[in-house]
Fold:
Amino acid sequence: MLALIVSVAWSKWRQVVCNLYGSHVSLWLNLITLTQFHLMFYMSRTLPNIMVLPIVIYALTCWIARQTKPFIIYSGVAILIFRSELSIFLGLLLLIDVVFKRLTVQRILKIATPTAVLVLITSVVIDSFFWQRVLWPEGEVLWYNTVLNKSSNWGTSPFLWYFYSALPRSMSCSLMFVPFGLIMEPRVRPLTFAALGYVLIYSIMPHKELRFIIYVLPVFNLTAAATCARFWLNASKSLIHKFLAFCAGGHLLLNILMTLFLLTVSSTNYPGGAALSRLHSLEPEFSNVTVHIANLAAQSGVSRFLQMRTNWRYCKNEYLNYTRVELSPFSHLLVEAKNKHNTHLQEDFETLEFVECFHSIGIQYNSFTPVRIKTRPCLLIVRRKFYDFGNPIEEDNAPSEEIELHNSQEQISNDEGISLRKERTETKTDKARNSEYEKLKGTMHNRSDYVETLSREVDNLESLVHQRKGIRTDIYKHLKDIKHKKPIRKKLSTPLDDGNTGGVDSRKEFRLAKQKSFDTNQINFEDVGEATRKAKTTKLKLRAIIEEYYRSKGRQTKKGDLETMEEKSLTAQQSMEATMKTEHMKQIIEEISSMDLSQLCNLDKISRKACLKMIIDEIEEES
Structure:
């Protein structure tokens, strides 16, 4: 109905243009307007700017036809009831009439005063009734945007945004004919300058939208139509005129291409409508669904026309904080993608689909179509877990316990996480619910067997760990005893060369010296100072020698293990033993690094390196 009303007003506008400027200008006006995107697009949108557009078109029609009284009345209705910013545009037209002495101030006041009083009373009475408080809506909007200057709360744009962005997009290629119209057609100059003045003055407002200046499009299209009609009529005069006529006709094709592109872009601007339509196709028609529609979805396509399921309940409460209590009545949600990390949504709901919306426009040079429309996920369609279509789960009956089992060998993924549910079978007589319950019971039985198997294996491994810990405790105690006791010095008959790993005689003497250190409680302090001075080396260097030797032995052991593994496979217990041995050797290295080697070896005859190697070999043989 709104588009029809706008069309009727446009028909009146075109008829007056035909009478004043000729049929060619009227034809070009229609062609230009039909090939543009935004005016046709906005005609059916129930915005206050579009609701007032027919009145503005009637006012412009009266102004160019020199009908002063209807123009003032239409202007008063448009300004006081719908959009107060129109006082700039329509006020400039009145100012032009006063400047050119087509109208006096006394006559304006004579018509405008009773019109303003009547319109203002009508607006206050009707709107106060609906808002349940004394209110003049457009006066409140004017106060908010001008006095309080809070329009920037809804976003800001640069001062010239209307000129370099809004007008080029809304008028496409027709905009380039407007300057020629100002030069070639004097009759459109006052109206066009008033429109330009309105756009320039309204650019002071930080918050800018195309719909705020949509009233000037009929004026600019009229100016462009006058130019194109002049070019077309003069095509036969010269080659230049033919080229200009070709440009006038060709720009309509470019307008159509631009309109198709913008139509494609705009189709991605309604994720809410796409999400609700998709939800209808995902869920059965007979299902009992309660869906919450988030603010973004409600603003981007969700309307009463899409609420087609009579047994569904639709909620548009925009004050939810998405807590578990607030979400308990809903089976489905249309929420913004930024809420996907919400804890309650992750725990209680599963994602059905992402719905994408417009993000930006990209250029691709290796494709037939160089322009690409980029989208991004902006809405989520989520459904409550364990939801039954026939009988929606109440909060009291919803699954309340989830037990997650973790072990050292395997991490169970979220999709396969073990869940234990409490079912109240006395309230679930539906066949689908019973089937679901039986299926869950079978799954839990199979998984409980698996858990018991894992538990037995973990018990075996724990017993092995305790056993290995006991061995390690004895070794550490043994090393501490060696650390605090000093053996009786004994000359070794076979000295060891520096870097040698030790011979048989040296090992026997080392063991005798070590056994002696365990049997005696007396400590010989002779020559301790000299031995200590020789044995004192940097702990880091000592540790480096031990680790180097241990790594070399580890490589040899690993090579031998690989040959053994070709003959038989290692069990889980053997793997655990290898792990514990590695940790065991690390602790031994720490203990040896802090020992005084002069208590175990005769450092006058053998090197520290050989002494360390013998200690490691001895510990490995005992363990």
